[in-house]
């Protein structure tokens, strides 16, 4: 099972979303054909809502892949703001650079190559939004490192937190994912019960956690 929602619900929700501009739509299609793990369309729409609600100008992302979501967020900010993103896979990192160039967004998107666990310590700046979309066992570390760089009132969005349904029920957990599932459950407990944060977990896409940094 890949989707946590019934397919007809996802299809219907997606049918309500305005088409992206042509170039971005083509880029999405190419990524989907290659089965790259880019953000679901409805997750993009939710991110768009948040960026506009809080007037985000500076975003930090963990997990660039080939750059789709960073380019999407840059377009949502009308190509004005700044996205800092991190990718540890060299092939994807180089491809992200190329894609960002083809969208003429080199000035708006900065891609760091390496493990976010190290890189995050060396990034300066303060951000209104963070988007966590990388190795699922390390979300708590990514989150805490991002939280240090957030402005008060900032929002951290964590993607894939319900991971194919496995996080919510043991019935779906496959053996080699056991550790990841335990870590993700601990992460969701943590961000849901710490007084510094207000978190809402939504069954959108593959599960999204939205956290307000008070
Ligand atoms: N946000 C992208 C998709 C990211 S897929 C989009 O929606 O377009 C997750 C990516 O995170 C993968 O490319 C993977 O290589 C990268 N990744 C996983 N763990 C990482 C880590 N510790 N540091 C940096 N990148 C990581
Ligand atoms: Mg994701």
Concise synopsis of the structure shown:
The protein has 214 residues and is of the alpha/beta class.
How does this structure look, described?
A seven-stranded mixed beta sheet has the order 3-2-1-4-5-7-6, sandwiched between helices. With 214 residues, it is of the alpha/beta class. It is globular, with a radius of gyration of 16 Å. The chain is built from eight helices and seven strands, in the order αααβαβαβαβαβαββ. The longest helix is centred in the last third of the chain and has 16 residues, at 178-193. It has helices spanning 7-15, 22-33, 41-54, 68-76, 90-102, 116-119, 139-147, 178-193, and strands spanning 58-62, 82-87, 109-113, 127-132, 150-159, 197-202, 208-213. Strand 4, helix 7 (139-147) and strand 5 form a beta-alpha-beta unit. Bound molecules: S-adenosyl-L-homocysteine (SAH) and magnesium ion. Residues 37, 39, 133, 159-160 line the site of magnesium ion (MG).
Helices, strands, pairings?
Blueprint: H1 7-15, H2 22-33, H3 41-54, E1 58-62, H4 68-76, E2 82-87, H5 90-102, E3 109-113, H6 116-119, E4 127-132, H7 139-147, E5 150-159, H8 178-193, E6 197-202, E7 208-213
Parallel strand pairs: 1-2, 1-4, 2-3, 4-5
Antiparallel strand pairs: 5-7, 6-7
Helix pairs in contact: 3-4
Bound molecules: S-adenosyl-L-homocysteine and magnesium ion.
The site of S-adenosyl-L-homocysteine (SAH) has 19 residues, from helix 4, strand 2 and helix 6.
Strand portion: 15-25%
**Which residue ranges are poorly predicted, with pLDDT under 50 across at least 5 consecutive positions?**
none
Coarse morphology: globular
CATH architecture: 3-Layer(aba) Sandwich
Beta strands, count: 7
Number of domains: 1
Bound molecules: S-adenosyl-L-homocysteine, magnesium ion
Q: CA-to-CA gap between the ends?
A: 36 Å
Question: What is the ordering of alpha helices and beta strands?
Answer: HHHEHEHEHEHEHEE
In the CATH hierarchy, the third-tier topology is known as Rossmann fold
Q: What's the number of helices?
A: 8
CATH class: Alpha Beta
For the sheet with most strands, the description reads: 7 strands, mixed
Determine the oligomeric state from the structure: single chain
**Structural class of the helix and strand makeup?**
alpha/beta
Tell me the CATH superfamily: Vaccinia Virus protein VP39
